[in-house]
Amino acid sequence: MNLSECLEQAALALASEDFQHSLPKIVAHCEQCLPVFRIGIAVIEPGQPFLRVVDTFGAPGGPAASGVGARMPLEGTANGEVCRTGRSVIAMPIDAAAESFMEVSRLKLAGARAYLCLPLIYGDETLG
To answer: What is the mean pLDDT of residues 12-16?
Structure first.
């Protein structure tokens, strides 16, 4: 299975259930193509300069993640860029351009070698 197929299966898992039951299935799909440290879902808080983490799931030994309910800034982050543009930020491997985003540089220091940040879109609206 290639990365595109893995992400498609992961998106189907996310669309079919609630977040808490979806993330382990998404990680299982993605691990068929690449090692996964952590996956998380954060949603835009309307009128606020941050995203709110609604769930995370990670492999043992992966970097620590923000907990559920944590706020992630939009400014200076890959997450903010994805929410602003609706386009993914994919760095495989993590390069200097991706390291300019604060969360990517932190994850690289924790041992991550690649970073994918995908928009959560419903209809024409980017939700997170």
So the answer is: 67
Alpha-carbon torsion angle 50, 55, 56, 57, nearest 10: -170
Is residue 53 within 8 Å of residue 70, measured between CB atoms?
A: yes
Please give the Cα distance from 8 to 14 (Å, whole number). 10
| Two structure tokens written together for 45 | 């808080």
Q: Count Cα neighbours of 14 within 13 Å in the Cβ-side half-sphere.
A: 22
Name 42's bridge partners. 53
Q: What is the pLDDT of residues 78-112, one digit of tens each?
A: 999 999 999 989 888 999 999 999 888 888 888 88
Main-chain dihedrals φ then ψ at residue 94, nearest 5 degrees: -65, 125
Cα separations in angstroms, 119 against 77, 101, 110, 128: 13, 16, 23, 6
